[in-house]
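Protocol step 4 of 6.
Sequence for Bacterial SCP orthologue domain-containing protein (Bifidobacterium aerophilum) entered exactly as in the expression construct, tag removed. Do not edit the line below.
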Amino acid sequence: MAVIREQDMEKGRLAWSQWRKAALEQTPATTSDVAADNAAPDARTTATTRLAVNPELPRPIWAMAVRYTLFMLERRAPGPGVEVRVAPWGAVKILDGPASDPHNLTPPDVIELDPDVWLRLAAGITAWDEEREAGHITAVGERDDLSDLLPL
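Step 5 output, structure tokens:
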């Protein structure tokens, strides 16, 4: 089953754009942004702030943004080998590799993320290692790192 319906693609693009815009407004200034002030941000505070980005948007926008970005990930790296789950709004199988066990339909590699974590990664607000070190990513299997595919 598709993660997003064809007739919802435009809604998904719009939701993703709205989410990114709202999230970037919460994102702290980068070093280049503060260079003019001859001041550098505290790297740990900046990372903590980025990890907390969570825009106040209606649930339907979150749902469509998640579905649309999962669709984009699936297009970028098709295959049956890794299942990426962003509950409660979607899951896709990506990357080549062993397919699901015919008895339980779960591939050998599974990655689970909350919607805020997934969208921060997809937008490039945070990096895979940052989110993983913060304990925000649950991954089982050998292919448990999507950093080469992100941001979208």
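Step 6, annotate. The domain at 6-140 is CATH 3.30.1050.40 (Nonspecific Lipid-transfer Protein; Chain A).
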